[in-house]
Amino acid sequence: MSRTLEDVYAELTAPGERFEVGTEVVRGTPTKVYRQAPAHLRELLDRALRHGDVPYLVYEDERWGFAETRRHAASLAHVLRDRYDVGHGDRVAIAVRNYPEWVVAFWATVALGAVSVPLNGWWQGDELEYGLSDSGSGVLVADDQRLDRLGDRLGRLGLAGRTLAVRSERDLPGVDHYCDLVDPRDDLPDADVGPDDDATIFYTSGTTGFPKGVVGTHRNMTTNLWNLLISAGARQKMGREDRATESGSDAKRPDQNAILLTVPLFHATGCHSVMVPSMFTGQKVVMMYRWDPGRAQEQRGREQVTALTRVPTQGKEQIEHDDFDSRDTSSLRSVGAGGAPTPPGLVSRMAELFPRANPGNGYGLTETSSISTMNGGDDYVRHPDSVGKPVPVVELRVVTDGGDDVGRGEPGELWIKGPNVVRGYWGKPDDTAESFVEGGWFRSGDVARIDDEGFVYLVDRAKDIVIRGGENISTVEVEAAIHEHDAVMEVAVFGAPHDRLGEEVAAAVLPKPGRTLTTEEIIEHLSGHLAGFKIPSRVWVVDEQLPRNAAGKIVKRDLRDRLLADDG
Questions:
Q1: Which pLDDT tens digit goes with each residue over 423-458?
Q2: How many H helices and E strands in the chain?
Q3: What's the rounded Cα separation, in Å, for the pair 296 and 307?
Q4: Which of 40, 152, 161, 308 could bond 218 through an S-S bridge, CB–CB 3.0 to 4.6 Å?
Q5: Dihedral sign, CA of 178, 183, 186, 192?
Q6: Do 66 and 81 form a contact (C-beta atoms < 8 A)?
Q7: Could you report the per-residue pLDDT of 211-238, keeping only the tens digit for each?
């Protein structure tokens, strides 16, 4: 009888093992923790010295080695401390797109015991001002485009003379230049950093209302690293890595693992699950300034990329790209997805196109420091609509509106507990109290069910359920069914107002390039897949990509409002 994932986790987390699990009191609550996880992020930065000058960051034709990146971070840490008087707990904002200097600014800040505040690179001036003001950031690291958007706001934010420009050749009042102040050096400034000190403030996507600053600790970040490592180790121990690659055993395997960074660093996936783990493992990060499927194909081949992690839409765009068939994919060992549900049909398609790569996905939020559950290898192929099982230090509950546990297999709100759960929202005690409840539990707001084998299935985001005449309809279910049509590129399902029913199911569908679709074809396709009340009564076939936030998720409210307004 083959071993289960739980069996392998038990072996890997046993006393004396690398991933040994014990119990510590975290913020007053007994919590399962990894006993041998790094204590803080500064410890990870020091690990860069082990990797020497092999590439850590690749941006276009630039190559930054691990040791070189650390020397830049050490120098910037001195600049932050000596020039800008940054100390323990002070906030340093980073308003920079995917450049190597983003990475340097992050490591320099957390190594001082200060708090890194990544700001959404898509934000405009007022939004950037909000993030700077809300976080109380005392120093800003920014590129030209973000500085242009901020305009004359630096003065009233108290950041004139406390702003450092990267990749800029302009002289702006009150703005210093990275290249003038950062002179790479080996020694880091002394700093006293603890596992439960604040390390980051990441802002939620802000699809409704003002964004909330999610305050993560050093323990949160290093726990996520260990979650990723044990998940990979478990898949390898169960033989999945070998089975995934045996058909390509004659292919040349790159000397260094490399991951293509297709998402922004100001998003938890990019920072927590790509940049930080790569510092620990010695993996090369191939940076994309912005997502472009054609450019991704080029970089994947040029840099012998071994791992891809992206939102499902990016995966679909890549395999639909004109030159996909002409590109060599033999170096790929891992193809992951996250940030949004993956249509089951896309999972099987990826398995066909990347036979040597181990497929996987995961589930988490900014509030859980990225990963809470993982699904990979054979499990993912067998359960493509599941986000997997919880990692060893994470506990899950599925509860009713009153906080009572539901029966096995029944849907309810998913609650999460573990050392990866952040301490709350910056400066918002009421929101913190509402979402972070007694016993260390975080209320995710996601509706989920857990089957008899322990696999977690996301039913929907609570606020996104369409309630049609008293019937709850999962938008995820309807979207997955529409995605099964071979002419569909993107789809978003949402509720539209209805005088009698309260809401009706509506959908926006983008066809694949060169394909056409009609409302009638969509309805006919669904009639054999879904109950009648779940089939959209309104369908818009659109000719441009659906709107997304910085995390790559479709902004349904904006889409709905625009389509309804266009209809009068």
A1: 999 999 999 999 999 999 999 988 999 999 999 998
A2: 20, 29
A3: 12
A4: 40
A5: negative
A6: no
A7: 899 999 999 999 999 999 999 888 877 7
